[in-house]
Specification:
Blueprint: E1 3-5, E2 14-17, E3 31-32, H1 34-42, E4 46-58, E5 61-71, H2 85-91, E6 105-109, E7 124-128, H3 129-135, H4 140-143, H5 156-163, E8 170-172
């Protein structure tokens, strides 16, 4: 469960929203460190939506640290997601596609490389180490281990929707008007 807190998170990061006021990413949550936020404010690239009570000062300047910012220019989100270990695990819900365990995840080639399988979205799934070892270099039909999902390239939208199922443990109260989770949050 996530907890909504009034105290600023460690490091006082800011939630980054696209120009349409939606988070750039849910998982990982689009956060910038306060130093990058201050720089973006000075370069006039963001609008400050909400602030922490904490003030930063220089000899000639003082400002409250932003807790939520919105980009002034819209960043398109329609590019194809990168093929990365993290994105494969996210697509598969951070669980083994064979036994649903969330522990000790690895990559598994559904069609083994030794049988012509490629390292691609269509052939890689998340598998726990025991299932991966059990399947080994054999075909799914030979060991009666078929993935619960058919591996395929997800869209960024699909990854965002899946990511909404994994909220961070602590969310600052000023972020809540801009985040929409698929789970119940503690207040």
């Amino acid at each position: 469960m996530s907890e909504v807190v009034a105290a600023p998170p460690i490091g006082r990061p800011a939630l980054v929203l696209n120009a349409d006021y939606r988070p750039l990413s849910y998982y990982p949550l689009s956060l910038w460190c306060w130093q990058d936020v201050v720089k973006a404010v000075f370069l006039d690239r963001v609008d400050i939506i909400a602030e922490y009570d904490h003030v930063v000062r220089s000899p000639s300047f003082e400002m409250r640290l932003p807790s939520v910012i919105a980009l002034r220019e819209f960043v398109r989100q329609d590019r194809k997601p990168a093929f990365t270990r993290f994105n494969v695990f996210l697509r598969d819900g951070f669980a083994c596609v064979y036994c649903h365990s969330p522990h000790d995840l690895t990559f598994d080639h559904v069609i083994p490389r030794s049988k012509g399988g490629r390292t691609s979205w269509d052939n890689i799934v998340a598998a726990c180490s025991p299932c991966n070892l059990k399947k080994g270099g054999r075909m799914p039909r030979d060991v009666r281990m078929h993935p619960a999902i058919k591996p395929a390239r997800p869209s960024n939208y699909q990854l965002q929707e899946i990511g909404r199922k994994f909220p961070p443990h602590h969310l600052h109260e000023t972020w809540m008007d801009y985040l929409y989770w698929d789970v119940e949050l503690e207040s």
